[in-house]
Amino acid sequence: MSRAATLLHDPSARTDAVADEIGLSERQLRRRCHAAAGYGPKTLQRVLRFQRFVRMLDAPAQQLDLASAAARAGYADQAHLTRECAALSGLTPATLASVRRGAAKPDPGAGRGQRGRAQASAVSAIMAVPISRKPSLA
Fold it and tell me: Which end of the chain is more exposed for a tag (fewer CB within 10 A), N or C?
């Protein structure tokens, strides 16, 4: 599974190509990903991409340009980053950057989109939980 996770780090990797590369069927890859990480391969790829963005936030940098950070992390555009950040952390990218750098406390209402998809209580299950465990929503 470590080879599959390495291949899934590439944002453009397709699950059928990853399965072929490691000699598994797509269904077997999905089963093994669920067993090892608690996610399917595409969700694992989504989490890895978000973790790549969070590592950029944690890196000592002067100013963070969200559009270029989105592109470097593997997002299609800044709007894609904003949607994913709200879905996975409950915060907007700018608020998450402030929180990660210790400049602000999380506002439970921040990151809520028009549809209110983000949960106020879930500051971030994804950022705190290692990839080897599925986050609990408790």
Answer: C
Closest C-alpha among 79, 88, 77 to residue 54? 88
CATH number of 2-128: 1.10.10.60
Sketch the domain layout of the chain as residue ranges: 2-128
CB of 48 closer than 8 Å to CB of 131: yes
Q: What is the 3-state secondary structure (H, E, C) of 68-96?
A: HHHHHHCCCCHHHHHHHHHHHHCCCHHHH
> Tens digits of per-residue pLDDT, 70-117?
999 999 999 999 999 999 999 999 999 989 888 655 555 554 554 444
Amino acid at 123: V
> Look-up: residue for tokens 């700018």?
94
**With a threshold of 0.85, does the pTM exceed it?**
no
Residue 128 and residue 96 in contact, taking contact as beta carbons nearer than 8 Å: no
Collapsed DSSP state (helix, strand, coil) of residue 21: helix
Report d(CA 129, CA 44) in Å as an integer.
13
